[in-house]
Amino acid sequence: MDPTSLEQALLKAHASDDSAALVRLYTLAGDAAEQRADGDAACFYLTHAFVFALEAGAPEASILNTRLAEQGRAHLLEF
Questions:
Q1: In angstroms, rounded to a whole number, what is the distance separating the alpha carbons of residues 22 and 10?
Q2: Which stretches of the chain drop beneath a pLDDT of 70?
Q3: Cβ atoms within 10 Å of 58's Cβ, excluding its own
Q4: 3-class DSSP assignment, residue 54
Q5: What is the pTM of this model?
Q6: Is 75 a member of any domain?
Q7: pLDDT given at position 25
Q8: Domain containing 9: what range?
Q9: Which residue, 35, 48, 54, 46, is CA-closest to 72?
């Protein structure tokens, strides 16, 4: 997904309070930042994905927590 489309999709997901889409889209943004070797941006987006996953009780929370812990940006939690 190109950056402009991703940004528009994120805005739409926020406007409609679509937690599942927010988790997916912020994860995609984090993945894209990792591919650009921008660790700070990747962790910024993955942290957003993680928070939305926690709020929604989504199973992705565990995977996102692991990814952030591996980057030294979170403590590893038990789910």
A1: 7
A2: none
A3: 19
A4: helix
A5: 0.94
A6: no
A7: 98
A8: 3-70
A9: 46
